[in-house]
Structure formats: structure tokens, C-alpha cells
Amino acid sequence: MAAQTLRDYRLRSGLALLGIGLGTYSVSVLLGVSSLVSGAVLSQLATVSGNSVFAQQSVSNRGPSSTRLSQTDVDALSGLYGITVVPQVFETVQYDDGQRQRAVTLNGSPGDTPRLDPTVHVQTGRFYSRMEAQSGEAVAVLNNRAASDLYGKRDPIGQSLALHYPNGTRITLTVIGVLQPVPGIFQSLSTPQVMVPNPYIWRVSPVTRKNDFDIVQLVLAAQLDADTVADRIQGRLDALHGKEMFTVQSSAVFRSVVEGVGRILQLFFGVSGSLALVVGGIGIMNVMLASVTERTRDIGLLMALGATPAFINRQFIFEAFILSCLGGGLGLIAAQLTLWGVSILVPLLGPFTVQFGVVAAALGISMFCGLFFGVWPAARASSLDPITCLRYE
């Protein structure tokens, strides 16, 4: 009977469907886009950071007399099962070709880094070997940002790269390789970096002493839990130097930060989209109230034939439920098609997959709105007096 009534009032039912459909569409698209963005950022973060733990000086251990990570610490952390130690030095130098001045990060590493760290990939040329690193060869590998900033479209392989420290110390390196660009949004955040052997920095740097390191990266095997390893490493460093001298963080920390931001975005977009659903629910309520007025005589006839107020109440509630389900379903289909199109137009977001959590949330909210805003019209219809209804013109 409810379906027949909705068919008899096609235009009004269609407008109610449109309202709840647009609301569901808004909720689904906003939640879906935020989910796609969060998933893409997490995927790219995993590509950039991998499964690693990073040890570095704590904030309270900074200054001229601070304690830095040393070869003793590297030896203490080496040899742990499933862990590859990559000690690194970072310094800031200047590039100046007479026309451009640019700050460049000099990143020292132990050599053969692509084999030690699976997140490092050479695009052209090669990475310096462990032997070249140990002998402190003046060779350099550029990240993609440094190659484009310093050489433009020219091939940097084999070129000489002149840099200088703030105190005027000049160094000249031979470029032997260029790294692959980092993916997605992290490419725009990257800065020019020149990777050189650690012993080379110790030889030419005016500030870094031999066997001092800024960061010790521990690349973990896939089966190891980063947080558990971070706690173990923190314990070892605390035992060697005392508490609060060094900070150990896992790449899982960055992941949890991104996931937290993603949840905040989903909450914000979900609440914003729900406002459109509330408007759609109000539309259903208006349609149902108008329907009560138009069908007053029909309600009176049903009551005269034995229909109870509870039956009338269920009749109108069921009509509102059908409208919310149909409108929500159509809105969901349109939203999934939109998200599929967005994933094709923006490959950076990754392949499209149906987010069942988003679908369930959007459909559940639309059904709730339909039922909630159908209660008042149903209560009004079930409370009518049969005699008054039969006399209604």
C-alpha cells in the first residue's frame, strides 16, 4: 500500500528522493575523497620511509657541548637480527654558480645505500660503493630535486659540482648518479640533497668530527615490529648515555600522525555532508505532512474499515523509510561513480575501491534521517479523529 501511494504521488515522491539522494551523495563523496587522499598519503609515506627506526639527538641534547651519535653507538646497534644500520650525517652547504644561490643539504651515508635501504632507488648512473665511501671519494649522488634545480634539463652525470660551506670552505664533487623522485605529494616537499660518503664529510667539514653522526637509521626486516624495535633501541642508548640524550622514533609514528589527520578530515567532511542530508530529511517531512493533509479522507475511510492508529502510523513511517532507502541508494550509486571518475582523473590517489565503511555510514545516516523526519507526519496522521477525517473536504 505504501509503494502504491508513493507511485500515485510521483512528483512529490521524486522531489523527496532528490533531496535525500543529494544529501547521501554529498556525504559519500566527501567521505570517499578524504578516504582516498588518506590512503594515497599513507601509501606514499610507506614508499618513502619504509619500515625503519630513526635515532637522533633529543631536543635537550643540543648545543656546542652536546653528545652526538658515534661509531661506538653504531657498533652497539649493529648485528641485531633483521636490522641494517645506516648511519648518516647532514650538513647545509651553498650552491653558487654566479647566477643562482641555493641551500643544499649534504647527506652523508656509508655507501651502497640502495642495497641497505629499499626506499632508495637510483634513476640514472650509479650509487657510490662501500669501498668508495670508506676511502672518502669526492663523488656525489643527487636527489631528483637537486638534479633539476642545479642542472635543469642537462645531464648531471660526470659533471663537477662546486659547493661551499658558510665559512668559505669550498668542495668539488663528481656527480655519478641521480635518485628516483619521491612519489606524490612528497616530491613537492623534497629539498635539494646531495649524497656523499660519510668519511668525505668528516674530511672537509669545519664542524663535524670523525665518526660523529646526526641520525642512525635502522632499516627493519618486514616481519619486525617498528615500535617494539624502537623501544629496544631506546633502552640501549639510554644505558649507554643516560636518559633523554637521544630520541628513537619509528616510521609508524608518521603513519599514526597521517591516520589521525585523516580521521579528523573524515569527521569534518562527514558532519558537513550530513547537513545536506538533514535538508533532505526536512524535505521528506514536508512531503509527508502534505500527504497527510491530502489523504485525510482516505485515513478516515481506513479507520472506519477497522485500521488502528498503529497501522496508520506504520503506514506513514514505512513510506518515509522507502523514500530514504531509494534516495540513499541512488545517491550512493552516483557517489561511487563520481569517486571512480576522480580516481581515473587523478591517478595519484591510487586505484578506486568501494569503501564499504563509507557506504554503510552514508546509507545508515540517510535511513536514519528518513525515519526521524517521518515520525512527526506519522504521529499526526495516526492521531486524527475518524469522524473529522470523513467530513474533511
TrEMBL record:
Keywords: Cell membrane, Membrane, Transmembrane, Transmembrane helix. It comes from the Bacteria. It holds the Pfam family FtsX. The keyword Transmembrane helix applies. GO terms for cellular component: plasma membrane. One of its GO terms (molecular function) is transmembrane transporter activity. It is found in: Cell membrane. The chain crosses the membrane at residues 264-289, 320-346, 352-376. The keyword Transmembrane applies. It is a multi-pass membrane protein. Residues 13-234 form the MacB-like periplasmic core domain. Coiled coil: none annotated. Residues 273-386 form the ABC3 transporter permease C-terminal domain. PANTHER family: ABC TRANSPORTER PERMEASE YTRF (PTHR30572:SF4), MEMBRANE COMPONENT OF TRANSPORTER-RELATED (PTHR30572). Belongs to the ABC-4 integral membrane protein family. This is ABC transporter permease. The lineage of its organism: Bacteria, Thermotogati, Deinococcota, Deinococci, Deinococcales.
